[in-house]
Design a protein that fits this description.
The complex is a heterodimer of chains A (305) and B (388).
Chain A: H1 9-49, H2 69-77, H3 79-110, H4 115-123, H5 130-140, H6 146-153, H7 156-162, H8 175-199, H9 204-211, H10 216-245, H11 248-253, H12 261-270, H13 274-299
Helix pairs in contact in A: 2-13, 3-8, 3-10, 8-10, 9-10, 10-13, 12-13
Chain B: H1 11-16, E1 20-29, E2 32-42, E3 47-51, H2 58-66, E4 73-78, E5 81-82, E6 93-96, H3 108-118, H4 124-134, H5 150-162, E7 168-172, H6 180-197, E8 200-205, H7 208-214, E9 217-222, E10 225-230, H8 232-237, H9 242-247, E11 252-261, E12 265-270, E13 273-278, E14 288-293, E15 299-302, E16 312-324, E17 328-334, E18 340-346, E19 359-364, E20 370-373
Parallel strand pairs in B: 3-8, 3-9, 6-7, 7-8
Antiparallel strand pairs in B: 1-2, 1-4, 4-5, 9-10, 11-12, 11-14, 12-13, 14-20, 15-19, 16-17, 16-19, 17-18
Helix pairs in contact in B: 3-4, 3-5
Classes of the chains: A mainly alpha (305), B alpha+beta (388).
Chain lengths: 305, 388
């Protein structure tokens, strides 16, 4: 039909295209302005701060000396906290996956009329503040609490202590408590994208798998899992990245031996050591970006529909 | 396929080949009876169609054969082996699903190879290549299902099932999502492939034309039971229930009373007209009947025209509607007792067509007449056919 249109229509449609382009820019403008003001500018400021001479202070002011040694210093000084952060974040992500996949699967395929209610239940914790929910875990895991008592009675606390996960006879203020808190806090970020992916899978594909000689497990491995991969990748990223930088859980549920990098950065800023704090922030960011790029490559999301 | 001489074969299997046999199969969903005490034998190598309106239980029957539903009561055998409670992935049966259910994340090649890979078959590459050749999709092997047209996806679904050489191939409304022209083409294609591979096809459809074009045996299903089963021609020419008469094509049903007859014919009084019907086309021992005649078997003549001796004749009709549809003209004619009958007439040009209001007589050959028990609902199976 298009080729029958009179040539007089051409300039008009050109105008329309230009108008559409303009509307696109206008729609982008608020977010673009916001990002450049509150992301790009602070980022430049952060990177330049990380290169200040650390001998200065807030009172005397800092000298911009291109002090790259800041990076070496923080890497040497805080390498164990960095490692621990990624270990804890990795563990929390793993447990979120372990808990979240069956949950998302059940909501997507088995919940029937309970689907919406269950989804609300997944999001419900967000109605309370992050801080309060984490503080609640202090009560749950406290030495007098029934959880610790029960675990004690079952000798599980002894087992955890023997494995170095907790102190003898208690659960709180331990690596176990920190990872538990992280898992709890970031679980919805795993469940929701996973659910979104699983929900789109046509249940008849499971029947087709069964019809084509695939056992339920094989059908899961060859059909469900590959189709859920985009959700799984999104879920792990949404869990791992904030968990790696989190400082609330380590601070409220951990001890001095469980300090994560977020806590270190926060303490350095509080203590006025701006160059080190900035350098450490940049290190954390770079490592996460590299890990994520590597991970997305490996997950092969470009293969997905 | 099993050789008749194989020693390990149970004797029953050797006799029955790989016949699909359903015995007393009932499926209930809560209070709803989807399939009611169904007995059915599909001979090996047959192209069998289950025809019926939506909700008649045909898809449920198919799913029970596939193993996707478990019968509430009854057994299903293939070649003497009881498969009623076998898991779907252990049955020698494959399905072409309605709207295909292709794996969207796999290429066409891998979709077709799926079944073979699960069975750890060797020589997968060659077999898939051959199968893609058969369905003429070789150039599409590395594409994803989303990049294919409906007709191509349909052929992938067929190839994916067929490559496993099942003893029975199940097709659930396989052409339902295609447009009319493509459907015609695929009907011929499916029939060709079935003849070529010789596998038993069980085909579920609500499209009577599709069922008649492809299948060598059609079972008309309604409300969980099989109303009538037979070759398409037999079903069409001699329906035994009002449902079959109306669902498979269209029928004129006129109320009448059997009033005697001789050895080979029965005579019927229908609103004063004396009609004749061969005895083998009439149910025995029933006097209140529906006299049935297909619209294309009825001839129209101007009122009072002499007709051949022995024809069934009904006088006093008035044309109430004329639809010209190219190859034929469809008339509605009102008879003196108020009923309207349908007549299809070829546009052979032998005579001017009638107009609305013309007085006409209707006549047809006695051997085209069929009788049905008047206890049945004359409108059973009407209208449902058009729904899609």
């Amino acid at each position: 039909m298009a080729h029958v249109a009179p040539p007089a229509g051409a300039p008009a449609s050109g105008d329309a295209a230009r108008k559409r382009g303009l509307v696109g820019y206008l729609l982008l403008a608020p977010a673009g302005l916001w990002l450049s003001l509150f992301f790009i500018v602070p980022m430049i400021s952060l990177i330049s701060t990380s290169l200040y001479d650390p001998s200065g202070s807030l009172e005397t002011g800092y000298q911009m000396t291109g002090h790259v040694q800041n990076y070496a210093t923080v890497l040497q000084e805080y390498d164990s906290q960095l490692l621990r952060s990624f270990l804890y974040a990795g563990l929390a992500t793993f447990f979120c996956m372990l808990l979240g996949f069956p949950l998302a699967y059940a909501i997507a395929f088995k919940a029937g009329k309970w689907k919406n209610l269950l989804l609300v239940a997944v999001i419900a914790p967000f109605f309370t503040s992050f801080l309060i929910r984490t503080l609640a875990w202090q009560l749950i895991l406290s030495d007098q609490g029934w959880v610790t008592q029960t675990f004690n009675a079952l000798y599980l606390t002894d087992l955890f202590a023997a494995l170095g996960l907790t102190e003898q006879g208690s659960l709180l203020y331990s690596p176990l408590a920190v990872v538990t808190g992280l898992t709890y806090n970031f679980l919805p970020f795993m469940v929701l994208p996973l659910y979104a992916s699983l929900e789109k899978i046509d249940p008849r594909l499971h029947e087709a798998g069964a019809d084509l000689y695939a056992s339920p497990f094989t059908t899961f491995r060859k059909v469900t899992l590959p189709l859920a991969l985009p959700g799984l990748v999104a879920g792990t990223l949404l869990t791992f990245i904030p968990a790696a930088g989190d400082f609330i859980n380590a601070q409220l549920l951990g001890n001095t031996q469980t300090t994560m990098i977020g806590t270190v950065i926060q303490k350095l800023f509080d203590g006025g050591s701006y160059p080190e704090a900035s350098a450490l922030s940049v290190v954390l960011m770079v490592i996460i970006v590299v890990l994520v790029l590597f991970y997305i490559r490996r997950a092969g999301t470009e293969d997905l529909v | 396929m099993t050789q008749p001489g194989d020693v390990q074969d149970p004797p029953q299997a050797a006799e029955g080949g790989s016949d699909l046999v359903l015995q007393g199969v009932t499926k209930r969903f809560g209070d709803f009876v989807a399939v009611d005490d169904l007995d059915l034998t599909v001979p090996q190598g047959a192209f069998f169609a289950l025809l019926g309106p939506s909700g008649c239980g045909k898809t449920t029957t198919l799913r029970m054969v596939a193993g996707l539903e478990v019968p509430t009561v009854g057994t299903i055998h293939i070649g003497g082996q009881d498969i009623s409670h076998l898991k779907p992935y252990k049955r020698p049966v494959n399905t072409v699903f309605q709207s295909y259910a292709l794996f969207p994340h796999l290429t066409i090649f891998e979709n077709v190879a799926f079944g073979l890979r699960r069975q750890k078959k060797s020589d997968v590459e060659r077999q898939v290549d051959e199968m893609l050749e058969l369905v003429e999709l070789t150039p599409m092997a590395s594409r994803k299902p989303g990049q294919l047209s409906g007709g191509q996806q349909q052929r992938v679904a067929l190839a994916r099932a067929l490559i496993n050489r099942p003893q029975v191939l199940l097709l659930d409304e396989p052409l339902g999502a295609l447009d009319l022209k493509l459907r015609r083409q695929m009907q011929i294609e499916l029939k060709r492939i079935q003849t070529e591979v010789g596998i038993t096809f069980v085909h579920v459809t609500h499209d009577q034309e599709e069922a008649m074009t492809m299948a060598d045996t059609v079972a008309v299903m309604n409300a969980g039971i099989i109303e009538q089963m037979g070759a398409p021609k037999e079903l069409y020419e001699h329906p035994r229930t009002t449902f079959a008469a109306n669902f498979l094509g269209q029928s004129n049903l006129v109320r009448g009373t059997v009033g005697g007859g001789d050895g080979s014919n029965v005579t019927i009084d229908a609103h004063g007209a004396r009609l004749v019907c061969p005895r083998d086309r009439a149910p025995a021992g029933i006097s209140e009947v529906w006299v049935g005649i297909r619209p294309e078997k009825v001839f129209l003549a101007g009122a009072g025209t002499e007709t051949a001796d022995g024809s069934n004749l009904m006088r006093g009709g008035v044309v109430t509607d004329v639809s010209f549809i190219g190859v034929s003209t469809q008339y509605l004619t009102r008879l003196p007792w108020g009923q309207e009958l349908m007549i299809f007439e070829q546009n052979s040009g032998a005579r001017e067509s009638f107009r609305v209001g013309d007085p006409v007589d209707l006549h047809w050959l006695p051997e085209h007449t069929f009788l049905l028990d008047a206890a049945q609902d004359a409108s059973a199976g009407v209208e449902i056919e058009g729904e899609d």
